[in-house]
Design a protein that fits this description.
The protein has 2 helices and 4 strands. By secondary structure, it is of the alpha+beta class. It is globular, with a radius of gyration of 11 Å.
């Protein structure tokens, strides 16, 4: 599931985040900017992760997605 979501995220034009690292268990996206509009992007990424039954953790800037 991680690999599938990574493929989806790789094809998106993310404005506020970028892919940082991917391994067997997780995907990390780092914030390019901390604009308030970036929250909407976080919510969209979380919705995508939910479709793959993955857990999303957001620390206010970076996003970690895990099994």
């Amino acid at each position: 599931m991680i690999k599938r979501l990574h493929n989806v995220l790789s094809n998106l034009e993310l404005k506020y985040h970028m892919l940082d690292s991917v391994n067997e268990d997780s995907i990390v996206l780092v914030a390019k900017s901390l604009d308030a509009e970036g929250v909407m992007e976080v919510m969209y990424i979380k919705e995508l992760a939910d479709k793959y039954s993955l857990v999303t953790k957001w620390d206010g800037s970076n996003i970690e997605i895990r099994r």
